[in-house]
Amino acid sequence: EVQLVESGGGLVQPGGSLRLSCVFSAYTYSHYYMAWFRQSPGKEREGVAAIDLHDYTTYSDSVKGRFTISRDNIKNTLYLQMNNLKPEDSAMYYCAASNINWLLLPKYEHWGQGTQVTVSS
Known about the structure:
Layout: E1 3-7, E2 10-12, E3 18-25, E4 33-39, E5 46-51, E6 57-59, E7 67-72, E8 77-82, E9 91-98, E10 110-111, E11 115-119
Parallel strand pairs: 2-11
Antiparallel strand pairs: 1-3, 3-8, 4-5, 4-9, 5-6, 7-8, 9-10, 9-11
């Protein structure tokens, strides 16, 4: 069974940084395409960043240059480093996994429960 558990969310001031983590429980973690999504109340789930099997990354325009996605195949962990955070980055953040390279489309088969990020002064 595939399980994803996110952590690292919290309250941060505008301009601050957070690093989200997603621990992935599966023997073949390195065979999965991974991504981070976010969702605010009343809005659709938005793809933020994705990483493929060769560590090639894709970002949404809204976070490009501020967020960095990375993966550690030994620790079975996905990361999202978020810098220069803005109030509009406030959302529930989810990690997702799939054997198909969906990039930033919300069609991944496996999802975590989410971790809340709030950017406010």
